[in-house]
Design goal:
The chain is an alpha/beta fold. It folds into 3 domains: 2-13 and 25-79 and 116-180 and 392-486, FAD/NAD(P)-binding domain; 189-252 and 329-385, FAD/NAD(P)-binding domain; 271-326, no CATH class. It contains 15 helices and 16 strands. The chain has helices at 2-16, 37-50, 69-72, 97-104, 117-134, 189-192, 223-234, 271-284, 288-295, 299-305, 308-326, 331-342, 399-406, 446-449, 455-486; strands at 28-33, 55-61, 138-142, 145-150, 157-161, 166-169, 171-174, 197-198, 216-219, 241-245, 346-359, 362-369, 376-380, 382-385, 426-428, 434-440. The two termini are 31 Å apart. The structure holds flavin-adenine dinucleotide. Keywords: Membrane, Transmembrane, Transmembrane helix. Residues 1-22 are annotated as: Disordered. The chain crosses the membrane at residues 27-46.
Length: 487
């Protein structure tokens, strides 16, 4: 609170006082790499705070559209948010912001509704447009960042883009979102080059040229799989859809009325302890969903109370069960998936993938059904990798991440999930030193926070990081003001 007051005091003094030096000073440059939800919201908060400050903001995005990201750039109207509208405000201080925007746009503003993700993309775009209006120092740069090269004393860095251009920044924030999935099986490099295989499930040309009667295999049975089934439906696909995953667990649907179970004051610090508590709460509660929703606001606290050993134990034994209960889908989406399933066109298989063999007339996929010693095979025309984002650094193909890792500027989190960061999102280098220059927001913080991919967490991170990034600017201005008064 004290900090807020100081911040407001300085910025309001600056806006009232003409600053003759402002044009001559080189501005403090903040480069944000990635303009999906996190990058857009960070730019939004910065643009609101920066008004009178000598700051240059550069938002860099490699995709054709800003303020969309993987989730909200979808062209499929069947893709719905998996969180009710009432919880999707982009602003932590205004819980009803998204619902109010829906009402202003003349759309269904029921807080329990599950809005199309395209609509949410429009909402983000409106915030993006407001940022540009708020702050003339905000620039948008289209291109892929391939390297960040800090100067020797680590006070600034050159940000290089794939087209050979570059800029110098005093702070660089990686808002890269979820990274592409790893290959589903080691080896098979020839098959992975085939047009019959799609590593990137978000590619716009994923199903182009596909015979509507052709069988398709989706590897993985989480939210990405749900999206792909809906896309096939939307495109009028009539062929078989096979879904293969280790356990055959499918996402569950949200149920109403919502509620939150009360948790005991003293929470367990082990994965086993949590297992016992969850079973007990599920027995006592009207609905297990209330138990999961009761835990949700505390996940970061629970995760950080686990020892590294307990975090690994959770990841090994409980993660798949937690994921299906936590990442639920809209009831109408669940009904559509169920319809495709009962029509016999969607078959969910539990088993271990063993091999792909590409033949002239399709792909033979060999797998071992769960609990069986037998091998079975399927013949499909297209295989789509729906295994979910990769967060193990050593398996990430992203050129920027690989380069930063090779430079020793980042290191993997000990859990194996994402990067090592401080509580404020500063990246930690290979020697354990927190960077003053490089920050991240969003899914790359997963190992430290566990829950860091959805809007309810990201909106808070963006607001906090914006203030933190401006601290050196405020400190300089305060020092300069003090000197001015003394002289
Ligand atoms: C399909 C899907 C549906 C989802 N639905 C919901 C939902 O309903 N509710 C919810 O709360 N959350 C949902 N999520 C979670 C989602 O991750 C967040 O809501 C949010 O979109 C993540 O924002 P982000 O900015 O971290 O990542 P993204 O929005 O993916 O943005 C990252 C951006 O960085 C860009 N980029 C990456 N590397 C570079 C580079 N080197 N140079 C330049 N640009 C780069 C990418 O092009 C991308 O635009 C969903 C996620 C997905 C994938």
């Amino acid at each position: 609170m004290q900090h807020t007051t100081a911040f407001q005091r300085i910025t309001s003094q600056l806006s009232q006082r003409p600053d003759p030096d402002r044009c001559r000073r080189s501005p403090f440059t903040i480069a944000i790499v990635g303009a999906g939800f996190s990058g857009t919201l960070l730019a939004f908060h910065l643009s609101r705070l920066c008004g009178p400050l000598p700051v240059r903001l550069v938002l860099i995005e490699r995709a054709s559209r800003f303020a969309q990201g993987a989730a909200y750039s979808t062209r499929c109207p069947l893709h719905l948010l998996n969180v009710p509208a009432g919880r999707m405000s982009a602003l932590p201080e205004a819980a009803g912001h998204f619902v109010n925007w829906l009402a202003q746009e003349g759309l269904d503003a029921d807080p329990d509704s599950f809005q199309p993700r395209q609509v949410y993309g429009r909402y983000l775009r409106s915030l993006f447009d407001q940022s540009t209006e708020h702050f003339a120092g905000l620039e948008h740069l289209r291109g892929e960042v391939t390297a960040v090269l800090p100067n020797p004393d680590g006070t600034a860095a050159i940000v290089e883009l794939a087209d050979g251009s570059s800029l110098t920044a005093d702070r660089v924030v990686l808002a890269l979102g979820n990274l592409s999935p790893a290959q589903p099986l080691a080896g098979h490099w020839d098959f992975y080059q085939s047009p019959r295989y799609a590593r990137d499930p978000w590619s716009e040309t994923l199903f182009s040229g596909l015979d509507p009667q052709a069988p398709v295999l989706l590897v993985g049975s989480g939210l990405t799989m749900v999206d792909k089934v809906l896309e096939l439906e939307e495109a009028g696909h009539r062929g078989a859809i096979f879904v293969l995953s280790r356990r055959g667990l499918m996402p569950l649907a949200h149920r109403f009325p919502r509620g939150r179970a009360r948790l005991p004051a003293l929470l367990p610090a082990t994965a086993d302890g949590w297992c016992r508590l969850l079973r007990q709460l599920a027995r006592e509660s009207a609905d297990w969903q209330h138990v999961v929703d009761g835990i949700r606001p505390l996940t970061e606290q629970i995760w950080s109370a686990f020892s590294l050993q307990e975090q690994h134990r959770f990841l090994r034994h409980l993660r798949p069960y937690w994921e299906v209960h936590r990442h639920r889908i809209a009831p109408e989406v669940a009904r559509q998936i169920e319809q495709v399933r009962t029509s016999g066109r969607l078959q969910a298989l539990a088993g271990r993938l063993l091999a792909f063999y590409e033949r002239a007339d399709g792909v033979e996929v060999v797998f071992r059904p769960r609990g069986s010693g037998e091998r079975q095979s399927l013949k499909v025309e297209r295989v789509v990798n729906c295994t979910g984002p990769e967060s193990r650094i050593e398996r990430i193909a992203e050129p920027l991440i690989r380069r930063l890792h090779a430079q020793g500027l980042i290191r993997a989190n000990q859990t194996g999930l994402g990067l090592d960061v401080t509580a404020g999102g500063a990246l930690i280098d290979h020697s354990g030193t927190a960077s003053r220059l490089l920050f991240t927001i969003g899914p790359l913080r997963k190992g430290c926070l566990w829950e860091t991919t959805a809007v309810p967490e990201l909106r808070g991170q963006a607001a906090v990081l914006a203030r933190q990034l401006l601290e050196p600017v405020l400190a300089n201005l305060t020092a300069a003001g003090g000197q001015g008064q003394n002289s």
